[in-house]
Amino acid sequence: MLKRTLIALVLSLALGFAGLHLVAGGAVLRSETYRVQSPSISVMVLIVAAFLGRWLSPAVRIGLLCNKAGNELPNAYTWIFATAGPSKR
């Protein structure tokens, strides 16, 4: 099951990238495409606010700190269903 899921994910990403490359051409592979052309103060404030919002999120912060310490955490899918309580099926 996991093997098929991974194959489907890789195939999906490859086909998506191939389609994007077909439409946009070589611009997809150039780093200039992804650089901010004229960063304004409002864009920089938004970027910093988004970063701080994600960093202050407890789940992200705990995950990053545990990874740095070498502790493994279960993935979010397993955690959500393990803590959701008994199934209503």
Topology summary:
Blueprint: H1 2-24, H2 41-56, H3 58-69, H4 76-83
Structural summary, described in words:
The longest helix has 23 residues, at about 1-25. With about 90 residues, the protein is mainly alpha-helical. The protein is flat, with a radius of gyration of 20 Å. It contains 4 helices and no strands. The two termini are about 20 Å apart.
Brief descriptors of the model:
single chain; 89 residues; mainly alpha; 4 helices; flat
Strand runs, count: 0
| Helix fraction bin | 55-70%
Q: Categorize the overall geometry.
A: flat
Low-confidence stretches: none
Mean pLDDT: 79
H and E string: HHHH
Q: Count the DSSP helices.
A: 4
Separation of termini?
A: 22 Å
SS-derived structural category: mainly alpha
Radius of gyration: 20 Å
Give a short overview:
By secondary structure, the protein is mainly alpha-helical.
